[in-house]
Amino acid sequence: MTSETSTSHPSLPARILVVDDDEHLVLIVQMVLTKAGYEVQTACDGFQGLERARAFLPDLVISDIQMPRMGGVEFRSKAGRDPDLSEVPFLFITGYRESLEAVTEILHAGDRALQKPVEPSALIGAVEGFLGKDASSHDSPGTAQPENRS
Amino acid sequence: MHQPDETTTEPGQESFRKLNDRAELEAVFERLTLETMRLVSAGLAMVFGIFLAFNLLDLPSRAVVPVATSDMVLILLFLAINRLLARDLIAPRWAHALGLVITLLVLSNILLTMALLAEPFYTLYVMVLLVGVGGLMLSRRWIAITTGSVIIAWTAVATRFIEGPEMVHYGFTLVAASALAWMLYAARSHTLRRLESLRMQSDSKTRDLEREMAIRHEAEARIRLSDEILGRVGNLVLVADQTGNITYVSPSITPILGYSPDEVLGQGWLELTREDAEIRDQERGYLAEAAADVDSARSEPYERRVLTKDGGERWILWRDTPGPAGTLIGIGTDVTGRIAVDRLTGLPNRNQLIDSLRQNAERAEHPETASTQLLSIDLDRFKLLNESLGFMTGDKILVQLGRRLEECIELSKIRSETLLARMSGDEFAILIEETEHESDGIRLADRILERMSFPFEIDDEAVFLTASIGIAISSGSTASRQDIQPNAETALDLAKEKGGGSYELFDAAIHSRALRRWSLERKLRNALAWNELHLAFQPIVSVADSKISGFEALARWTLPSGENVPPDEFVSVAEEMGLIHQLGEWALRDACGSLNCWRNAGHSLFKPGVSVNLSPYEIDEKLTDRVSRLLTEAKIEPSDLTLEITESVLIEEADRAISILSELRSMGINLALDDFGTGYSSLSNLHRLPVTSVKIDRSFVRAMEPGRPSKMVESIVILARNLDLEIVAEGVETLDQYHQLRDLGCDFVQGYLFSPPVPSTEATALLSRSLTIHQDFDPAQANSDFPT
Questions:
Q1: In this complex, do B526 and A27 lie within 8 Å of one another by their Cβ atoms?
Q2: Which of B87, B106, B84, B98 is nearest to B33 (CA)?
Q3: pLDDT single digits (tens) B629-668
Q4: Which residues of B touch A68 (CB under 8 A)?
Q5: Which residue has the higher pLDDT, B203 or B787?
């Protein structure tokens, strides 16, 4: 994936939207990603996520599966139908192994899924997999690759 | 065939019908004739009595004798006829003949009197007789005979003694009387004809009416018969029109629901349905659909709760068939208390759940330790979905939802009994019975919500739905257990109010412990990954040389908010969640790593060891392999490691635990019995455990008073000595405690007197100092020596 926004401003840091109803986790992830040089915005559920994504136009969305009002899968499905967001890849973080299996079946090309708990290094690794080593370069692996941490 | 019903026909109707019956009518006339004759015979007897009296006054005249005799005979005859008539001894058919006899008797008497007494005046009697008896009573033929014979007889007698104009005068009068008799007869006939014609008309109307009545009676009888049969069969038959109004209901509604059929006829069927608004709307739509298209009537039986007259409810299993003119015929069977399975999903139904709740409330086996939890699960905006995609789709989703819930329960591995039931419509419930884990319900709810995030596949369409969950936790009294269901519903309402897709706990303040536990569970997984946990080390000091002989490694967890979670709390969470192996391995690896650091820093002289706490849940067949692998990795001698266990290892499968611990011991690892004296098992079990030392619990050390040695500590020391075990005293905070313990013969001491638990780096610093404890050891000084 190479979003227009990122290619037209190669020097700008890549943008990541973190969507999770667990504030504790959102804080940590935001901290780690910001420290790694990414521009991070957060949302607490799919509704807010969709709203923020349309304004923020992220290069990557990191989303939980289960959230009130609108879950991650529905969020992904809606984003996929939005012309501005259809190219944005998703990194799902799921709480349960069965969710990881289920989400794997419905992943869009370019999406990935990890099971909680995700270690900081694994998270950064996954993000780099999407956006490249340098926080401002945005190469994408372009393949769906679920990762099962059993 | 219509049989006149004696009990139901009105009296007026009965007389009317009789009057219109030809035979009956004639009988009435004959009866009337006889009655008249009776009165006439009595009257004539009186009249002739008077004649007799007059005749007797003229007795000296010989001519009077035959007349008086005739009078007396007639009186007797008339009285006899009167009596016979009064006693009904004369049949009505003799009425005309009798009339003729009377006429002839009277006529003969008159003629006799006229002849003997030469009185033309008697002609008037004849006239009266002709008019009265003839005109009113006789038939046409007999009138002709009577009038003819009267005129002939009168003429024969009268010509003998009446002359000239008087003869003409009386003769004319007599003819006029005859004519009058004929006119009376004509009038009588006319009236009879009129009556006859009227009767004919009413007969035809009556026949029509009777036909109709017969048909109606037949129909009514048939309905009564159907009602009777339906009543006996015990099923409830109900016909509703497209708006849901009841147009027919079988009388069996009374024994089943308490209403009389009249009470519910014309009422809205949905008003009697005791289901929530969503189901009612669903039913409303269904009725309209079924009215428009007969094929959309449900082919499968389904259950509904129906309100009884006394405010209760019954479960009715309905089988629907399309009725005439857009109506729907429902045949219902009362299945209350009989069925336990929901037909749509195959899950237990409300009955079974309520039953289990009741039994649970009665049982309440371990009210002090165990809790019963109930989850009420309801789909959000299911009504909208039903409206937009139809009820069939809605039903498919409910079946899928049931399966998802089953999977979630299975995956959550709840150790106690669970029961999943479909309560009604899109509401499901899960009962968790007698669980020791307060967060079971919340954990399950979270899993369900996660599962709900995935779309339902309906006819290759992905349908996204969210669910709301209300959780009620009850422990303690039976009364509170009975409230669990309404409480879960209240919590469900709360969750719905928040916009759906979440769970709520009934009275979260009361269950804050369960909530906190769940929050810790969620955080603990991350904590292990994100290194929020760390080890603190508390020195263990040798009494003999006052040197640090080792450190006890203690796990600490500080949240990003700065809050410290007490080890007891997160260790038990980890044990419950199955994270204890992970936690234990991390602690052991970290402790060994620190030990290596100290060694590398040149503290090998002291040869400090490290003690790590071992949870009973970690003791399994793979423990020895894990430990030996970690020791090899860290290049640590087994004798440098002490694993601290508690007596609770003996609670379950003591033999297995002892054998595993013996293996560790044989590897050269030291084993210490922690919290000694406070444990679950008796002291007699001590010799069974392959431990090398005991640790006297801080509570006994704290209880020691200055100058007065503790008997308890003394006993423990003696016991340990006898078993050849080293003794470590924990929680030593004062010099006095230290001196007493030293005098009693303790080998090692540990406590704030020397140092609180400190980070690994500070532990290195402690080792750098030459540490000696003198007789006049000052705690204040000690605290300055050992950073806090």
A1: no
A2: B98
A3: 999 988 888 999 999 998 877 777 788 888 999 999 999 9
A4: 466, 498-502
A5: B203
pLDDT-derived band of residue B5, with 50, 70 and 90 as boundaries? very low
Q: If you write DSSP's letter for every residue of chain A in order, what string do you get? A: ---HHHHHSTTSPPEEEEE-S-HHHHHHHHHHHHHTT-EEEEESSHHHHHHHHHHH--SEEEEES--SSS-HHHHHHHHHTSTTTTT--EEEEESSHHHHHHHHHHPPTT-EEEESS--HHHHHHHHHHHH-SSTT------S-------
Chain B contacts of A77, Cβ < 8 Å?
455, 462, 464
Provide the token pair at B473: 């936790």
What's the pLDDT band for B8 if we cut at 50, 70, 90? very low
B724: left (phi over 0), alpha (psi -120 to 50) or beta: left
Whether residue A19 contacts residue A42, with contact meaning beta carbons closer than 8 Å, is answered with yes
Within its chain, how far is the Cα of B363 from the centroid?
23
Q: What is the pTM of this model?
A: 0.54
| Secondary structure of residue B328 in the 3-state scheme | strand
DSSP structure class, residue B296: G
> CA B450 to CA B452: how far, in whole Å?
5
Strands (E), B579-701: 609-613, 641-645, 670-676, 693-696
User: What pLDDT, on a 0 to 100 scale, did the predictor assign at position A149?
Assistant: 40
Closest to B525 measured CA to CA, from B573, B569, B492, B478: B573
pLDDT value of position B122: 64
* ipTM value for the complex: 0.81
Task: Name the E strands within B414-567.
Answer: 418-424, 427-435, 456-458, 461-463, 467-474, 503-505, 533-542, 548-558, 564-565
Give the residue carrying structure tokens 């692996």. A141
Residue B695 CA to residue A103 CA, distance in Å, equals: 51
Which B residues in the span 233-272 are in contact with A, Cβ-Cβ below 8 Å? none
Q: Which residue spans within B234-277 are E strands per DSSP?
A: 236-240, 246-249
Give pLDDT, residue B781. Answer: 47
How many of the other CB atoms lie within 10 Å of CB of B44? 24
Kindly determine whether residue A68 and residue B499, on different chains, have CB atoms separated by under 8 Å: yes
* Average pLDDT score over chain B: 80
Which tokens hold the place of B27? Answer: 């009988």
Segment of B171-175, B333-337, B392-396 carrying the highest mean pLDDT: B392-396
Instruction: Using the Cα atoms of residue B128, residue B40, residue B139 and residue B154 in order, give the sign of their dihedral.
Output: negative
Q: How far apart are CA B644 and CA B675, in angstroms?
A: 9
